[in-house]
Amino acid sequence: MSSLPSPSAERPLRRDAERNRRLILDAAAEAFAEEGLHVTLDEIARRAGVGVGTVYRRFADKESLIDALFEDRIAEVVAVAEAALGHEDPWAGLVLWMDGFIGMQAADQGLKELLLSSAHGQQRVAGARDRLLPLVTAIVERAQAAGELRPDLRASDMPMLGHMLSGVADYTRCVSPDVYRRYVGIVLDGLRVRRDAASELPIPALDIDDVDAIMSTKGP
Amino acid sequence: MSSLPSPSAERPLRRDAERNRRLILDAAAEAFAEEGLHVTLDEIARRAGVGVGTVYRRFADKESLIDALFEDRIAEVVAVAEAALGHEDPWAGLVLWMDGFIGMQAADQGLKELLLSSAHGQQRVAGARDRLLPLVTAIVERAQAAGELRPDLRASDMPMLGHMLSGVADYTRCVSPDVYRRYVGIVLDGLRVRRDAASELPIPALDIDDVDAIMSTKGP
DNA sequence: CGTAACCGGAGATGCAGTCTCCGCTTATGA
DNA sequence: TCATAAGCGGAGACTGCATCTCCGGTTACG
Asked: How many angstroms separate the CA atoms of B42 and B126, rounded?
């Protein structure tokens, strides 16, 4: 009986096929994180050490692969928002949210494109955004009620702040993958209602040579 | 004598040719500003109402066209820096510089790409950057000496701040070409050493529908 | 050891951008 | 007025890139 194929149930893959599936998933995660969603499936196959055919046998198309990969990543973003809202200090909660939100996007270009563009996986991501909005609104309003966060900020500013800051992260990554946190620091200072001095930035400025290096890498 | 062709001197174009040259230049300026340097010459020809052939007869390639167009635009950037440094109030000078620098890039994607990527017109732009660096350094240090600007900011932060803010400008332009100034305001607040309250932002936040609209336009 | 499942990667397909070519049109000045 | 050099439009050649297919050969496994 067990030898009969059971069409509706999932038949386990042959061992080599399962191994390759994992190789592909891992390579894709790495590639999307480093390069963004525009990487070709040929490149992913190359990284995984398999042929393109193998990728297409396992995933109908790029979209399916993206879906399979990011299902849980976007749940993580929601988890970060929940953790931030759970923090006892309202301002620290906001900082936690910003750091997590931006940090995840800075570490993973693919995730950023998924969260910010609705070009892929509309279903899944739209759902996550719906769960996110009330959480972020609460984080913002709580910090405002505590008199810490500038009262004119709105939850709808978040995507833009996220875009800005993960944008620098992309821009500077190749030379210094952490400088972006400098600018998160500056923006957070800009979000406070009042302060007596600028907070200490977590990272020193790049020097001019590094900036030149960045610009050189950006085009032929 | 005047009828002899003078090979080294420039022979004036026939009137229709000259008219088309202008049409192309104007169309290109508009197209580069709106879409960035990646627009195709076919698109520029279409906007100018001429054939592609006409464009290629007048400009050897895309690069030449870009050169012809942006020669004075980048000089303008230098002029803004000089004006800012000339302003009597050091902080106001910095604000002037940021507004001008970001504003020009926000109004013209092509200029932004030229200033930030060194993919095109290396010569001309590199020269402008050399003239710019001491000016910006002076603007920054003067505002710091006045005790207004946070002391840990460096001139080398400018390209990144520019990238960040003109990045949001690009992102939001299609829905509201001015919201980016909101984020300039937040960043400027983050650059001050101390303040008693958040400054008033020049533009209200977008509402969620607008944000959704932006995301929808970013890719099918 | 037979065979169904799987593999690799060459290449078909489709699309987009740059630039050329040539038959036709037009400004100009003799 | 008209001869002609200068100019025009745009189809399409060429190139490069990304997606996805196909099939001869290989491999896991009952």
From this structure: 29
Domain at B65-218, CATH class: mainly alpha
User: Closest Cα to residue A208, out of B154, B74, B196?
Assistant: B154
Give the CA-trace dihedral at B62, B68, B72, B75, to 10 degrees.
60
* Tokens (6 digits) for A36: 């963004």
Asked whether residue B11's C-beta has any atom of DNA/RNA strand C within 7 A, the reply is no
Token pair for residue B33? Answer: 């500003």
Residues of B in contact with A120 (CB under 8 A): 219
Contact B208 A183 (CB under 8 A): no
- Give me the residue label for tokens 């009330």: A134
Q: What is the pLDDT of residues B24-80, one digit of tens each?
A: 999 999 999 999 999 999 999 999 999 999 999 999 888 889 988 888 888 899 999
> Which residues face B149 on adjacent strands?
B192
DSSP category for residue A149: B
| Residue B104 near residue B111, CB atoms below 8 Å | yes
Please name the CATH architecture into which domain A1-59 falls: Orthogonal Bundle (1.10)
Phi first, then psi: what are they for A80, rounded to 5°?
A: -60, -45
Question: What residue type is B66 in one-letter code?
Answer: I
What tokens does A83 get?
Answer: 């953790």
pTM for the complete prediction? 0.90
Give the Cα separation of B161 and A158 in Å (integer). 17
Indicate the domain borders of chain B.
1-59, 65-218
* Contact flag, residue B22 CB and nucleic strand D, below 7 A: no
Secondary structure (3-state) at A5: coil
Q: For B190, which of A186, A207, A218 is closest by C-beta distance?
A: A186
Please identify which residue in the block is written with the tokens 């390759």: A20
